[in-house]
Design brief:
The complex is a heterodimer. Chain A has 11 helices and 14 strands. Chain A is of the alpha+beta class. In chain A, the strands form 4 sheets. In chain A, strands 4-5-10-6-7 form a 5-stranded antiparallel beta sheet. In chain A, strands 11-12-13-14 form a 4-stranded antiparallel beta sheet, sandwiched between helices. A 3-stranded parallel beta sheet of chain A has the order 1-3-2, with no helix packed on it. In chain A, helix 4 packs antiparallel against helix 7 (115-121) and helix 10 runs antiparallel to helix 11. Chain A is globular, with a radius of gyration of 19 Å. Chain B has 5 domains: 2-79, Beta-grasp domain (Ubiquitin-like (UB roll)); 84-188, DNA polymerase, domain 1 (Orthogonal Bundle); 204-296 and 356-431, Aldehyde Oxidoreductase, domain 3 (Alpha-Beta Complex), CATH 3.90.1170.50; 443-555 and 567-613 and 759-912, Aldehyde Oxidoreductase, domain 4, CATH 3.30.365; 620-750, Aldehyde Oxidoreductase, domain 4 (2-Layer Sandwich), CATH 3.30.365. Chain B is 28% helix and 23% strand. In chain B, the strands form 7 sheets. Chain B has a 7-stranded mixed beta sheet, with helices on both faces. In chain B, strands 3-2-6-4-5 form a 5-stranded mixed beta sheet. In chain B, helix 3 (88-100) crosses helix 6 (146-157), helix 16 (521-539) runs parallel beside helix 22 and helix 21 crosses helix 22 (876-888). The chains are: A alpha+beta, B alpha+beta. Strand 1 (2-4) of chain A pairs antiparallel with strand 1 of chain B. Chain B: Residues 8-84 form the 2Fe-2S ferredoxin-type domain. Chain B: Keywords: Iron, Metal-binding, Oxidoreductase.
Chain lengths: 277, 915
Amino acid sequence: MTLHRPESLDEALSLLGGGAVVLAGGTDVYPGLRDGPPPSRMVDLTRVAGLRGISLRDGLWRIGAATTWTDVLRAELPACFAGLKGAAREVGSVQIQNTGTVAGNICNASPAADGVPALMALDAQVEVAGPEGPRRVALEQFIRGPRNVDLRPSEIVSAVLVPEATGQGAFRKLGARKYLVISIAMVAAVVEVSGNAISRARVSVGSCSPVAVRLRGLEEALTGATVAEVPGIVAGADLPGLTPIDDVRASAAYRREAVRTLIARTITDAMEVRDVT
Amino acid sequence: MSLDDPKGGIALTLNGEAVILGADPAARLSEVLRERAGARDVKVGCNAGDCGACTVLLDGEAVCACITAAGQVEGRVVETQRGLLEGPEGQRLAAAFQRHQAAQCGICTPGMMVSAAALLRRGGALNEAAVADALGGVLCRCTGYRKIIDAVLDASRHKALVAEGDRAPVSEGGVGARVERLDGWPKVAGLERFGDDVAPADALSLRVIRSPFHRAGFTFGDLDAYRAAAGLELVLTAKDVPGENCFGVIPGFEDQPVFAEGETRFKGEAVAAVVGTPEALAALPDFPVTWEERPANLTPRGAAEAAQLHGTRADNVMCRGRVARGDAAGAMPGAAHVVSGDFSTGFIEHAYIEPEAAVARRVGDRIEVQCCTQAPYMNRDGLARILGLAPGDVRILPTATGGGFGSKLDLTAQPYVALAAWRLNRPVRIAYTRTESIASSTKRHPSEIRMEIGADAEGRLVAETFDGVFNTGAYASWGPTVANRVPIHASGPYLTPNYRADSAGVHTNTAPSGAFRGFGVPQSAVAQEQLFDMLAEKLGMDRLAFRKLNCLRNGDPTVTGQVFETGMGIEACFEALEPHWAWALAGAEQFNATHDTVKRGVGVAGGWYGCGNTSMSNPSTIRAGVTPAGEVVLHQGAMDIGQGSNTVITQIFAEALGVSVSQVALVGPDTDVTPDAGKTSASRQTFITGNAARLAGAALRAQILRLGNVGEGAEIGFEDGTIVLSEGGEKRRVELPQDEGYALEVTESYDPPTLPLDENGQGVPYAVFGTTAQMAELEVDLELGTVKLLRIVAAHDVGRAINPLLVEGQIEGGVAQGLGLALMEEFLPGRTENLHDYLIPTIGDVPPIESIIIESGDEHGPFGAKGLGEHCLIPTAPAVLNAIAHASGARIHHLPATPATVRAAILAQRENGTE
């Protein structure tokens, strides 16, 4: 077995291909082995210079690909990131948060990825590094389906990018126990309020469709709403993007219904500016 | 830098020492630390980051070593539980864990302490929420987490280094004292050795080949060619079993093959095993087996029509049980109020954090097996039958056992390693993977229960009928025990003049259902105690008052006609809850007046459990001696799987002998030197082995007093290798014979007095019943169906608390398992074979638990003590379900009460306006 530990992005890229598995926190790679032996060749990104950390430049927040959930929690970030921080706190456990990365969560492309709804609500983009140079893809396009992302074998995600924004973030995860739980449904929102009404809402839902989705129709319907009006608007909204299934955690019928409660509460959380950091 | 091969080694600082480990850099760090660095205090419970047992500090941050590549720690600092003991946080934590008995079995303790150390190092004042956040990634199945929270908070307050003297267990105090766990220090110091921690370095590894289908025929390819090509030492199948290819636990029901022959009956059943070096097993090619999937039946509903699993068991009914008293059918129409309902529960997985593990070695013409177990002698006899040996030629050397709860009674891994070691004459080891453990070990029986209960106009019980069908899976295991025990217990601890209870254990193509804390009684309590609430509502009676009105009192006959003249303590349990009940009801009413979405509810339930085997002999034997050097030695064979028998039995023995526990040295349950104290199950050890220990202590005391020719009141002491007897201010020295072996020795047995049951189940099934009443306070989010527990109050009549700290530990751990049964746990064969799809409560899911210990004494128990282990979880689930109904109006008939289930019940209740 070979574990490559490159120290530069170019070196990392040169090691890709040929069935190499990209490793960072290991929190998805190793469970995925199901007690089997490790892959014959892995490329560990955790020593690549400049790949870990969060910075702001030219109106764009950059979350390096090796940035862990604990890094997110410890970073000083504006209010719109409150949902992402809320998600960071609910990823698995402290152990998982300490090594699991934001980019890894995206690349694993689980329908229940804790970080994806919050990043979608932030209009996150994915920066991909490859032999032809870097490219950027909107997160919504990057994840094509369960375990399926827009990434060639010769490429890695180098960063997640979030445009600077105003507004208040919020996140709610519904599960059957407190810690170490895969969600039944998740909602993330970033809400801007003008006066006492919503001027712009961004809402994303996870675990209720093959890939987390933004609810743009609902977002439009919420513009101009006061806190009191939110539950009614959410209850009456058409949410065609949500196609929940029955699984061991909950029925589709329950998800379909409960997610509306969760959406209304998450938006309300953001409007009431709960300090979730 | 690139670690392309292991020749360079991985350089790291491990527990303060620079080490270089020659290992595959892609290997799991947990495996490398355990197997290459000897850090056996790093435990492996899941290999998926789901349980946290392998938590280590990596540059000061808690990580799961099982999902970290070994090569990633190059140049970094790794700390394990053992290393933390060298620093102030670890020392404070170890002392606090020991003081609070925060370690029961001890398998999660390394993960808990390491996680807590990271938290303590950050400094600052702590609260429960911060502790829970820090420890939320470590699962514990024994403690219910409350004492772990207490210990961490306590450690955070003790800034000073703990003095050396405080490290040792406090070992003074007899019966009734809160003695710290006598075997606790190794658990908190990273020294405890469990089933997978004891294999010699040269041991071969074994892997079991299992059926991927619920039912399948199978044929092997060329196994010899495969063995040679794969570089294996041995391939085992049914034809390699020298004795009987069969095991079981109930006489007449031994029906489970070590290796299936011709057809597998459940998904996960073994058909073969391969043995080789770890390297050979890591590179194992596909095993040459061809499967032919066959139609399978997974529920009792289709069992009568399904293919018969066992030749002699028509309609796939393994066995039935019945208790009948009075005339239930005749009396029911005369009842003023009648309620009835259908209730069901699913498979429950034991989910001990230590998967099954064993290592075997051949010693001449004997075989020795080290393993985690609840039943060393049953394992010995079962293995002897499989190997075709005399029982005396099999030696079981139990390791520490990382939780059992019933499933480690049965043979699991032991036959495979024993067969392989016997054939190869080399040590062979195995540790089950989590998936393998969940797929193949026994489960709590799923239940389908219909029950009807009638009361008169004043609220007194008139009649009950109970019909319970239990899915016993592919093999009998402890299914007959469940079928027999449930009808005796389904009335609950209440005076029920007309009673008819029928049970059936039905075979299906699923993992065998066996023993699990309560043996079917928690399932029947879910039905009976919920119907009691429905009946109280019909009567317009307070739910606690209804139970108190009907509970058994001394002199009342049980449903088997047994009458206890003393020690029936259930009324005292309900009375102990009364102030809490009134306060909680008032609190809920006040809360609900001002809240619409979240509603508060309070529930109560009673429970009882007969200690020991049902109308069957189940003796325990205790051996003790005094060495020529004057050391008292207790051969303590009651397996301590975390519940505390090493401490309790010693306290009883020391009390009877008249010495302090610190003067007693323990010899463990090695079958070569320690007699059979029976199995650790059925809440029997404190009662039965405790009695044997009491008799042994008393007999040894009599010998000593006789030797010194002193009276019964004399005090026994030891000085300079002699016994010193003090009486009336005078001291008398007794020189001990300097023979080989013990200078003085006793062996005493105890078998509880029971009587057989007649065809209507009338008789004396148990010498002792323990009773309990628990109360749950919780909040239900009516829109989401989520349940938030606020508090549990648990009153338990334990007769006499030998060690109140251990009693609390049993209660809290049992309650946590009851919460899991009520709210989240369900094993679905083939679907929830890991610890992220099969959910057990985390540290954030168990609310504060207030234990109320009632000591009503007992006619037979040692110093009046009764058993306790199973009782703790019996009322928990129904108390929670009754509280959910109180809060929401919705009655949950089919467990678990997940958010989706609760929400559906709320919607149904709104639609129908009824339960």
